[in-house]
Amino acid sequence: MKYTIYLILFSTLIISCTPKSKFKTIDFISFEMTVPQNWNKIIIRGTDSYVGGIVTDQKDTLIFDIGGYSGDVMKNDFPLVYDKKGYDELSKEQKGRLKKAKYLVVDSLSGDIDYKKYLKQKFVMQKIDCFNAKLITPTNKELGTTGLFIDSLEGSTKEYNKVSMSFYGRNLKEKTEKQFIIALKTIKLRDYCH
User: Fold this and answer.
1) pTM for the full model?
2) CA dihedral 39, 43, 47, 48 (to 10 degrees)
3) In this predicted model, what pLDDT tens digit does every residue of 23-50 receive, in sequence order?
4) Are 140 and 79 in contact (CB under 8 A)?
5) CB of 165 within 8 A of CB of 193?
6) What is the DSSP string of 133-172?
7) How far apart (Å, rounded) are the C-alpha atoms in residues 111 and 100?
8) Number of neighbouring beta carbons within 10 Å of residue 167
9) Which of 70, 71, 73, 35 is nearest to 54 (CA)?
């Protein structure tokens, strides 16, 4: 009896000391990804595509869109160049974010300006499961978009049935950005690759 009690106490101690995983896998039906344990899946109703997302422990929101109209944010990367009137129209919060960023205020937007120096995002091509994807990061910390874009999971533009994937967060806190990039690299697109 004494031996049984010691065995139960020892087993309980071992089980309670086993560390919990810092990560979990979230299943989004057509794909899955590994994220920090304290990130939570959210459900969003889409009208013409499959949409969903994650809320992080830092209260950042990450949204994905899989469908024919999923967009590539690199196509709409407006540079941080303002004329004086445009700068004055920015909110106090927007001006506060710019203080940490590389931006330009000019008298006229029609001058000789190298707009590429002031883009919000940059990208590298990255293998995500069986696809080449644009892995997008902000040029300035906490100002811009972090995420990925896969141009074609299946179908084609010519046949009007192309399916693309985007997964983004905007103005993410630095810790969230780093964790999100790691998580994006774990995506398994089981409906499209396997």
Assistant:
1) 0.81
2) 50
3) 999 999 899 999 999 999 998 988 888 9
4) no
5) no
6) EEEEEESBTTBSEEEEEEEEEES-TTTT--EEEEEEEES-
7) 25
8) 28
9) 35
